[in-house]
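Example record for the data management plan.
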Amino acid sequence: MTHHSYVGSGPYCYANSFAMVMGAEAPSTAVLEFATCSPFGMQVVGKELVFFDPFGWDPTQAFDDMLTAAGWTSKLTIGKDADDALACLQRELRQGPVFAGPLEMGWLGYQPGNKGPIGADHYVVVLGIDGDGLRLRLHDPHGFPYASIPVSEFLRAWRTDSLGYGTSFTMRSEFRRVRVFTEEEVIRRSLPNARRWLGMEAVEAGSVPPGSCGNASAADRLAEIIQTNFHPGVRNPLVYFAVRVGARRLADGATCLGRIGYADAAGVMARQAQLVGGLQYPLVAGDTAGAVEILRELGPTYDELKAALG
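Corresponding structural encoding:
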């Protein structure tokens, strides 16, 4: 099947948020996402938490590498507690919008249906705090421009207790472009890190939860879970988030690799995008055999991609 680039909605919260704070000089969200190396692998964290991103990877580990590859710097601030975080946020907002996260999406009350923590990480761009200091304005890339939320509720959402990674009250500000690279150069500059993540060499095995696995082993593990114990705690994160963002990342990754002449690697990643995207219907419809068949085909592609990247 021929690869066609995807344009549309999807859970690209940090890439969209970075694009907003970087402004007119920002690379495309596809290139920003590629530079985080998120398309380069699959992992099962612990026994059954599944993501279509590299073994041991989480977004916060990738942000500095992405910014370096793109020729940008930013100021990282972590509040000591809620009061300190609010003071830091107010200070940084004097310089411009602030990238904030990870947040617990379930505490963002302007999103319909949100009533408490759901273990979903999220990133937003804070624009300002109203004069009375009680309300905060932000761009939420999940489809809520110029949303407002009580400051107290935002501070509650800014805690990472319910998430599997990250530090509460983390923000980035003062984004500066210090070197000018074309998008093709940014893609090429990201490849050394991409190879390390794909090769499962970027983290120590002891730094991930026991039972975690990556790439072909992760595909096999998910196939086993689907056949033996595919309960809502596994199914829902997959069909509402992991498959959607995984397929999008891979589709964008294939496009990026094609732009720099890596035709073989682009072809492998395009096939991965089609396979991961093709999981959505069987997982939603309960077609166990169909999902397992796709995963059996997906597993070997990680070694194929590694070989194609050289």
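Summary line stored alongside the record: The chain has two domains: 13-56+183-309, 74-177.
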